[in-house]
């Protein structure tokens, strides 16, 4: 077999005790892969725990849960994060209008531990509002989702 110029043949004794280039490459690759997978799992776990920490302990699975909660606790801030025309067409009694686009520059003027429940039309904007409020330090925020889930009466008219 012809030899490449500048390449020396290693004695069999040295070759047996050392790694071949392919084995060396695979060993480094697996070590890096293990590091990347471990880091990914830690980051994902942290994101999941952070997301779980944004919602309040009380689940709002049904519209009656929200109605009962509003009747029992007058200190709850119920935020309608839709636009003014949507709010005027109908909103949950006791709701305060704060469009989600206004939250970054005009957050609610309440203590950071106030119980806040947000809702919109379908649940998309309320999820964004929940995220924005928690990023601003509000620690007791829940997302009711969309107003379509509310089966009680709606108030009509403009914001106070």
From TrEMBL:
GO MF term (any one): thiosulfate-cyanide sulfurtransferase activity
All residue ranges annotated as the Rhodanese domain in the record: 72-156
Name this protein carries in UniProt: Rhodanese-like domain protein
InterPro entries per the UniProt record, alphabetical: GlpE_sulfurtransferase, Rhodanese-like_dom, Rhodanese-like_dom_sf, Thiosulphate_STrfase_CS
Protein source organism: Salinispira pacifica
CDD domains in the record: RHOD
Pfam families reported for this sequence: Rhodanese
């Amino acid at each position: 077999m012809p030899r490449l110029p500048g390449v020396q043949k290693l004695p069999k004794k040295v070759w047996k005790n050392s790694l071949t280039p392919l084995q060396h490459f695979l060993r480094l690759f697996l070590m890096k892969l293990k590091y990347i997978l471990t880091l990914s799992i830690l980051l994902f776990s942290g994101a999941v725990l952070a997301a779980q920490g944004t919602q309040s302990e009380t689940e709002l699975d049904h519209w009656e849960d929200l109605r009962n909660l509003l009747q029992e606790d007058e200190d709850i801030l119920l935020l309608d994060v839709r636009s003014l025309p949507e709010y005027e067409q109908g909103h949950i009694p006791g709701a305060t209008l704060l469009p989600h686009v206004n939250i970054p520059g005009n957050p609610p003027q309440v203590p950071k531990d106030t119980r806040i429940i947000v809702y919109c039309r379908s649940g998309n904007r309320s999820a964004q509002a929940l995220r924005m409020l928690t990023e601003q330090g509000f620690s007791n925020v829940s997302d009711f989702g969309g107003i379509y889930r509310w089966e009680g009466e709606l108030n009509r008219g403009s914001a106070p």
